[in-house]
Structures are given as C-alpha cells and as structure tokens.
Amino acid sequence: MIQKTKLAVVAVSGGMDSCVTAAIANKDFRLALVHINYGQRTEKRELKAFNDIADFFDVEKRIIVDFNHLSRIGGSSLTDKGIEVSKADLNNKNIPSSYVPFRNANIITSCVSYAEVIGAESIYIGAVYEDSSGYPDCRPEFFEAFEKVIETGTKPETHISIVTPIIHKSKPEIIKLGIDLGAPLHLTWSCYQNEDEACGICDSCALRLRGFQKVGIEDPIKYKLRPGYL
C-alpha cells in the first residue's frame, strides 16, 4: 500500500456531496475534516453524520466550528424558524429561501486557518454547480476568486488550493461516483428540516431523491415521503 504523505482539509457537512468529496480526497491524501455548526434546523443530525463519516474514513484530525452568528444574522429558512422551508421546486431559477448568506465563505475561512496551521496544501469542497442558480457561492468563479484571497492573506510560504472535484457533476453522476468509491452514502444526511426521517419534499431531499431515482437504486436513508421526481 502506498503511504499517503500529503494532507488535505475537507469541509464535510454530513451531506452526500461532501461525503463523496471526502472519498475522492481520500484516494491521494490523508484527511483532516472540518464541520460547521451555524444554527441550522438539522444541526444535531448533520453533526452525527459528520462524525459517522469521519469514523468511516478513520480520520483523527477533525474539528467542529461554531458559527452561530449566521443564525443570529438570519435571512435563511435553514437558520430562522420564522421563515418556512420551501417545498421542492426543481425548476426554480431564483435564490431559494434556504440560501444562507455567504455561508461558503465562512466555511472556507475556517478551512484555510486549519490548513495553514497543520500544513495542508489543499482544501476540498463539495460544491455543485447544479445548485448555483440558487446559491451564488456555489459557482466556480467564486472559488477561483477566493483562491486569490488565500494567496494574498496567508504567509508567503503558504500555498493552498481549493479543489471542487464534483462541481460540474449532476446528482446521478455524484451518486454513481460515490458508489464506485465505496463512499458511505447511507451515513449522510441532506434534509433541510427533519432530523429523524428526511421529509422528502424540501429542495435538498428532492435533488437527492431524483438523483437516486435516475440511477435506478433506492436511497438508503429513511424518508417520510418518497415522491417521484423524474
């Protein structure tokens, strides 16, 4: 077995995309995982998924960062219970209520700080361009711009790249890749509003369910409802 000497930081929400991204990074790097609590509705369930995924990959280097200021700022149905989580509309081209303002920038800053301290040369993020019509911080140009910020704002000897290996993949392609890599998709959590059984009707559940339905296999997590999204 080839000894992996290089270290990569991976932002892991506990969702399917970040899990597959961790599996990709795991092929070539030793992993250090970062998870963000930001007052989201499913914070406890996502944290469990994060730790389950970290245990699966036998990762010792893992940190949990509390960004509760995002819930105090509000403006998102994920952090403000006064804003209803919208039912799935996969044809919507507007920014959805689930958008957490500038969340990915907050996530990356924590990853950069950690990467510089532990000597990691890469930060892996499971962003998907398919989501970018709703989430402006999921676009490739956002990450390209942030990479320049990292180069400018870290020590001269620090060189950290942002890697977005699934950014141009569809959900079915991500699922197939996860299966091929042996990623623990059964340990992940994507629902925006429930922590016991996934609702099946929020945008995140719908994208995930449609992906599995297009692949032709059943999603291994529990749902209250499993509508058809093909």
Detailed description of the structure:
There is one protein chain. The protein is of the alpha/beta class and 230 residues long. It has a single domain (7-189), classed as 3-Layer(aba) Sandwich (Rossmann fold), CATH 3.40.50.620. It is built from 7 helices and 5 strands, in the order E-H-E-H-E-H-H-E-H-E-H-H. The chain has helices spanning 16-26, 43-56, 69-73, 103-118, 140-153, 171-181, 203-215; strands at 7-11, 30-37, 62-66, 122-124, 161-163. Strand 1 (7-11), helix 1 and strand 2 form a beta-alpha-beta unit. The chain is globular, with a radius of gyration of 17 Å.
Describe the secondary structure blueprint for this structure.
Elements: E1 7-11, H1 16-26, E2 30-37, H2 43-56, E3 62-66, H3 69-73, H4 103-118, E4 122-124, H5 140-153, E5 161-163, H6 171-181, H7 203-215
Parallel strand pairs: 1-2, 1-4, 2-3, 4-5
Q: How would you sum up this structure in a few lines?
A:
This protein is of the alpha/beta class. It is 37% helix and 10% strand. The protein has helices at residues 16-26, 43-56, 69-73, 103-118, 140-153, 171-181, 203-215; strands at residues 7-11, 30-37, 62-66, 122-124, 161-163.
**Number of H/I helices:** 7
- How are strands sequenced across the largest beta sheet? 3-2-1-4-5
CATH class: Alpha Beta
Number of domains: 1
What do the pLDDT scores average to? 95
Helix content: 25-40%
Q: How would you characterize the largest beta sheet? A: 5 strands, parallel
Q: Please provide the ordered H/E string of secondary-structure elements.
A: EHEHEHHEHEHH
Count of β-strands: 5
